[in-house]
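Lab channel / #folding
Pinned by the channel admin:
"Please post every new chain as: sequence first, then the structure tokens as a reply. Keep commentary short and put observations after the output so the thread stays searchable."

First post following the new format, from NK:
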Amino acid sequence: MTGAEHTAKRKIVVRGFTGRALQDQVRAIRSNAAELLAPFLPLGRIDLVNDFGRPFAVHVTLDVLGLDKRDWRRIAAWHHGIAEFITSITLTPERRRHCLDCAEQLEAYLLPVIEERRRDPGEDLVSRLCAAEFDGVAMSDRDVTALILNVLVAAAEPADKTLALLFKHLIDHPAQLAAVRRDPDLLPAAVAETLRLTPPVQLIPRRAERDTLFGGVRVPAGATVFCMIGAANRDPDAFTAPDTFDLHRPDLGTARSFTAAAQHLAFGSGLHQCVGAAFARAEIETVAAMLLPLLDGVRHSPDAAYRETGLYTRGPVALPLEFTPVPTPVPAPVPAALPTRPPTHQARTR
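Reply from TO:
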């Protein structure tokens, strides 16, 4: 989107991730994290990506949108296909058809939900989108659906990757892990440094508006340019020892790392900077602060082979960890302030 349409719709979505809405989301984040962690704490082992990170990211995003978490596995499968379509540079005809099928099935699931929220709006983001107007006209069902898909992929896709990469870096640097345990105020710096060194979104495509020269190479108008965030975040002219994880580095600026003035580019830049930067910070910091005291003696599982995958978005395939089992029951989850409203019967059974 560009111009007035982008400005108006961006404001609508931003309001769903700031202020009181964000405070409610933090309570939902804690509740979801406690519920998903509970079965693994007595075992002393967890795959931080597959056992926790991925379902957690989807659960929280469904809470924000106001969708039924009982359907999370189906929605996660559809989301995975849509994310594959968005983040793949090339797709076989078979994979392309699969991805489009996922989008069509999720759209069919969402349409009765949108109809319900137009009749009976709540405080969730879908209701906000349904009640919003652009140019004095309510957004169409297709407009609302497109924004829901955008939020679902953008909120769920990077979260599990960032959390897993944060813990990998801290475990691989025991002195820095110990420092964060001693001083929890260092946690934002650890998150910011994780985003700089290993951003979950590695590149952003942009279209050239006019003929342009980059490094002596002519880029014609209309051409797609892949802006490599992963490379820019390791620019030696911007960061000292850029390939080193250092939460104490003075050239990052933790306080501004989650704003438009960030030194790193993990959230993009300019008009299209990520609208969920404040939400991402709250989500990762809240969960990491819960995990650190519970995962005492946390370490990589023996013989676990570490592997990352992805070009557009990148992160660990798995992160098996071991820790000192927690013998006592986990406190009851904090009630989520975001009400999860069951969709219509039609939506649940499609």
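NK: Residues 16 and 104 are 25 Å apart (CA to CA).
TO: also worth noting, The chain has a mean pLDDT of 88.
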